[in-house]
Design a protein that fits this description.
Alkaline Phosphatase, subunit A; alpha/beta; globular; 2 domains; 577 residues; Gyrase A, domain 2; 22 helices
Length: 577
């Protein structure tokens, strides 16, 4: 299979000094500029090209093969990045739990989950004694055009333990503006962190784009205006493939037939084009339909273009930040798989939307005055039904067999302990009932180790299970860890890791009857595109290992901004450029 890609982009054709341009972009009065140059930054002649806007661009679940296979027909923004960027073909996530929350925060902080704390979309919080959503915050609430909605949409970056690039930029220059937009709350919040600015995500109940009282008690008038009209503007939308491509066209770019075994119907609309919803559908039904079709990608792109204009991003001497994450590739990929007609069409549409976005940046900011980093938050396993005819031993584990494995584990564990200790599925593995362990007089650490041993013994009769680790075993992994153990260490956070972590063998989908999933430590879930594009970054392909944790260090190097005191796990790839 083709190797993964890394794209980080700084737009334009005139190479500039990475440090000098960055200092100028931070503003003449920047204390950092004065400290590093030894004299007021205003006395230094600005370079011919000055960076004014950084763009962080994530395409949820986009695997690197997508850019390679679709390149001949990509005529918009994706094509521009692929053909003009610095491409890292071996880019890969260096941790085990490959999920959206962890991927976006790794991208925005330059840190691994073991450092930034967002180990997955959810986790068992040992301090609270319950499962927590990664951007959950019960002290805030949703904000729509009508204002705050108490008790609803309680989201914030409360669970992030490291600063994002927006926070770092604003710490150096509070005048820097930050905008972050996505269909998903964990993407928009995960990229913005605690930055002061506009942070928006989609309301699947049909209210349009929303924020949280953590960021603001209201949303801007232009966003409210967009929200007021989105429903009527899109009634009657029918999702059909764009571009009038023939069956031969689709075959040439590696897109499978429309009706495939293993696809999961979404929104009750089947698995083949066209997809539509009744013109008189309710606001809530339309909101969900938009989320599950390419409409939401288009909406995010529209709001991003409007934010560039309304927030005057990149229009003055203070370098600003625009974060945009597109979710449709993931939402639809879960149902149809990465090589489906549906995902192929999503990416062609995204290519067009990004072309419009980049044109807006060129016009408003200047072609040599904005920089962009493109990556994905994780990969995906192609449908087993797609892989098997191609010689890959991929299969689905029925729910009954999965339940039998767990039932046998509980029975054997009770025999070994002499007491019943219930287990429950927890994000990232199993957890054992703490109260029952205490009531039985069992030491939790010893019990977890015994449980791991029993689980490994039981797994020998279930060949789809690769291995099992206890909390303490993962906790003991140090810098010398390699392979799977290193990946697990990089996803370990003491207060947010399960008691037992079960790793299935590659190409297995457990308990998923249709569609597909990600989240494993296997390469197909860790491989991502990563691209640098622009004046500071030559058009080239690099085989240097890299990952999304390297984006923030590289951009800070471009800006001439030191890493925060908490440190970074990624490295500055500037020396490679």
């Amino acid at each position: 299979m083709p190797r993964p890609l890394l794209f980080l982009v700084y737009s334009g054709s005139v190479a500039v000094s990475r440090i000098t341009a960055g200092l100028a972009a931070l503003g003449a009065a920047s204390p950092l500029a004065v400290a590093l140059q030894g004299e007021p930054a205003a006395q230094v002649a600005p370079p011919a090209t000055e960076l004014r806007l950084v763009v962080m661009l994530a395409v949820d679940q986009m695997i690197p093969e997508q850019l390679e296979r679709l390149a001949p027909q990509l005529e918009g923004g994706l094509g521009r990045l692929y053909r003009q960027g610095t491409v890292y073909r071996d880019a890969m996530l260096p941790y085990a739990r490959t999920e959206t929350g962890a991927g976006h925060v790794t991208f925005s902080t330059g840190c691994l989950p073991r450092s930034h704390g967002v180990v997955g979309n959810g986790f068992w919080d040992r301090g609270l004694g319950r499962e927590v959503y990664c951007v959950e915050d019960l002290e805030v609430c949703q904000v729509l055009g009508s204002g705050p909605v108490e008790g609803s949409g309680q989201r914030s970056p409360k669970n992030l333990d490291r600063p994002t690039i927006g926070e770092i930029m604003q710490a150096k220059n509070p005048a820097s503006r930050v905008v972050s937009i996505s269909a998903k709350d964990r993407a928009a919040i995960g990229m913005a962190g605690r930055s002061q600015g506009l942070v928006l995500w989609w309301d699947k109940n049909g209210g349009g784009f929303q924020t949280s009282t953590f960021y603001s008690p209201s949303i801007p008038d232009y966003v409210s205006h967009w929200n007021d009209g989105w429903l009527e503007r899109n009634r009657g939308f029918v999702w059909e493939p764009v571009g009038n491509r023939t069956e031969r066209d689709f075959r040439l770019i590696g897109s499978d037939v429309d009706d495939r075994e293993g696809e999961r119907p979404f929104s009750g609309l089947g698995v083949t084009f066209p997809y539509s919803i009744a013109k008189d559908a309710s606001e809530k039904a339309m909101g969900n339909f938009a989320f599950e079709t390419p409409l939401c990608d288009r909406f995010v792109a529209e709001l991003a273009r409007e934010a560039i204009r309304q927030e005057s991003l990149g229009a003055d001497d203070d370098v600003d930040l625009l974060c945009v994450s597109f979710s449709s590739c993931d939402v639809i990929g879960h149902a149809n798989g990465p090589f489906s007609r549906e995902v192929t069409d999503v990416l062609f549409r995204l290519d067009r939307e990004l072309g419009l976005l980049f044109d807006e940046l060129d016009k408003r900011v200047g072609a040599d005055r904005w920089a962009l980093a493109l990556t994905a938050d994780h990969g995906i396993l192609p449908l087993p039904e797609y892989l098997r005819p191609r010689g890959v031993d991929a299969f689905r584990v029925p729910r009954g067999e999965s339940s039998a494995f767990r039932g046998e584990f509980v029975e054997r564990l009770q025999e070994r302990l002499g007491s019943r200790v219930r287990h429950r599925s927890a994000p990232g593995g199993f957890r054992l009932d703490e109260e029952e362990m205490k009531a039985a007089g069992l030491d939790p650490a010893t019990t977890r180790q015994v449980a791991a041993e029993v689980c490994r013994e039981v797994a020998q009769r279930y060949p789809w299970v690769q291995t099992v680790y206890s909390y303490e075993e993962i906790q003991a992994f140090d810098e010398s860890a390699d392979g799977l153990e290193k990946l697990l260490r990089n996803s370990f956070q003491p207060d947010r890791t399960a008691d037992l972590v079960v790793v299935n063998r590659p190409y297995v989908l457990e308990g998923i009857e249709k569609g597909t999933n990600h989240g494993s430590p296997h390469e197909y879930d860790r491989r991502i595109p990563l691209v640098f594009y622009g004046a500071a970054f030559p058009k080239r392909i690099s085989s240097r290992p890299a990952g999304s944790q390297d984006v923030v260090p590289t951009l800070l190097g471009l800006l001439g901004v030191p890493a925060p005191g908490t440190g970074l796990d990624g490295v500055d790839l500037g020396s490679d450029l």
